[in-house]
Amino acid sequence: MGASGIDTRKRALAVCLTAAFMSGLDVSIVNVALPSIRDGLHATEDGLQWTLSGYALTFGLLLVPAGRLGDARSRRTIFMWGVVLFTLSSAACGFAWSMNVLIISRLVQGLAAGMVNPQVSGLIQQMFRGHERGRAFGALGATIGVSTAAGPLIGGALVTAFGPDHGWRWVFLVNVPIGIVLLPLARKLLPAPQHTDRTEERRRESLDPVGVLLLGVGVAGLLLPFIQRHQWEGETKWLLIPAALVVLAGFVTWERFYWREPLVTLALFRKRSYSLGSIIALFYFAGFTGIFFIFTLYLQSGHNYSALMAGLSITPFALGSASASVVGGRLVSRAGRRLVAFGLTTVIVGLLATMAATALVPGDKVGLATALPLLIAGMGSGLVISPNQAITLSEVPPEGGGSAAGVLQTGQRLGSAIGIAAAGTIFFGSLSEGWATAFRHGLLVVLSSICIALAAAVYDLIRTYRTTGTSQ
Question: Membrane spanning segments where (predicted)?
Fold first, then answer.
């Protein structure tokens, strides 16, 4: 391929990564703006919770159907419609005059993010091969890590710059000019659909509406009890989980016997790279996103940190993740799952050091004391997310990249919701012992989840060694 073709792919990748950054940023950027939203719109705790969890819910619901739609029709078209919807809903959030308007806009914004994200992974599968694909996924991993970790910092900076009355609006409005710029670039740079006999056959096939419905109901049933754990009083909410598992069992049965092309190709899970990679992603994200939730609460409520200072305190994790993700993308083709196992071990070491720092420096200087441990944990994270995604999707045919990535990312969203709920429950339940103790107890939940991910990576290495005699 000529230099111009390579340059075009790099520019197309930049378009994809910018969209992924926007959607990832909105997972965490709102956290530090919640006090301003509460005051500005006279919001209840229930309304604030839906501002956070509504986005996560609809984000997770659309990943697999949108990935399949992009595979069957046009990833570029679905990507562009997703950016349009994300831009408009961001504007609606920013100009919201009531909590109901804000919540509905956030739900739509989550749907738009669910449309865009699987197209990004699918397009990387389509545009890159071999070590170039590993580097592209390395850049995507850096983007995911930075956007999630930098959300509190960027949100805090916007609230500080524009004041408590209007700063929270700019947390959403900042997406609007980015979306406007992205659209013509996406139209120009992203590859058009390739009209082969196979793609024409897929265009004529059903998009499996029954499968979409069963998966949507099952995922929603799993997510709701966790994201509404405080607002939905009583224990009946947990009955949704076994009901959702029954629905998902029905989904698996339907997909197995569906006479056309199913929504999810279950044969993928017979590939060890995909099944174990999905397990690693599920449990790692259950820990990964819980860190930011309890850490910002600890700093802002326990030590009266401002939104900006709380965001700055989590920045070392973001910097470590960004730098290591690029390195991880270059090394994954040679080191394989060993790199993921090393990254998970590094995260565990960094978080144990973070716990020690909060015990040794319990006062207002805790943000400074945890900077180096969080940097180490972030570097480990950068060696987990992008290499694991590259390995997990390595045996997936490019024409099915979007739907396979959608399944993987749905697991990540489920893990995030469950992890935040579990860490938050332990955190709030331990507040009587002090903020620092509550934070350390929450970190233990995070560490437990990451240890399970490490066990899956080690198991994969052992199986590979027994099969091939190498630890690749």
Answer: 12-35, 47-66, 78-97, 103-124, 136-162, 168-186, 207-227, 239-258, 279-299, 305-327, 339-360, 366-385, 414-431, 443-462
DSSP string, 36-53: HHHHHHT--HHHHHHHHH
For residue 447 the two structure tokens come to 């560490």
Q: Is 264 helix (H, G, I), strand (E, B) or coil?
A: coil
Residue 230: per-residue pLDDT:
65
All structural domains of the chain, each given as residue ranges with its CATH number in brackets, are: 7-189+263-464 (1.20.1250.20), 208-262 (no CATH)
CA separation for the pair 145, 349 (Å, rounded): 18
Measured between alpha carbons, how far is 288 from 148 in angstroms, rounded to an integer? Answer: 10
Closest alpha carbon to 27 in 114, 151, 175, 178: 151
Q: Which of 246, 248, 243, 241 has its CA nearest to residue 215?
A: 248
Please report which residue ranges of 228-336 form alpha helices under DSSP H.
Answer: 240-257, 272-297, 307-335
Compute the half-sphere exposure of residue 374: CA atoms within 13 Å on the CB side of its CA: 24
- To the nearest 10°, report the CA torsion of 222, 227, 229, 235: -20
Q: Contact, 430 vs 298, CB < 8 A?
A: no
For 389, the token pair is 């995604």
In the numeric block, which tokens belong to residue 288?
A: 């990964």
**How far apart (Å, rounded) are the C-alpha atoms in residues 165 and 159?**
8
Q: What sign for the dihedral angle of Cα 74, 77, 79, 81?
A: negative
DSSP 207: -
Determine the Cα angle at 112 with ends 106 and 114, to 5°: 105
pTM of full prediction above 0.90 = no
Please state, in angstroms and rounded to a whole number, the distance separating the CA atoms of residues 282 and 279.
5
For the chain (length 472 residues), average pLDDT per consecutive 10? 65 91 82 79 76 79 80 85 94 91 92 90 82 77 74 81 83 92 91 62 61 82 74 78 90 80 74 86 85 80 80 83 79 82 94 91 84 92 84 72 73 79 82 86 91 92 75 54
Structure tokens at 229: 């754990």
CB atoms inside a 10 Å sphere around CB 66: 28
- Contacts of residue 455, defined as CB under 8 A and 6 or more positions apart, other chains included, come to none
Do residues 365 and 35 touch, judged by C-beta distance below 8 A?
no
- Tokens encoding 401: 């990249």
Which residues, other chains included, contact 128 with Cβ-Cβ below 8 Å and sequence gap of 6+? 9, 135, 136
Of 177, 141, 133, 158, give the one whose Cα is nearest residue 308: 158
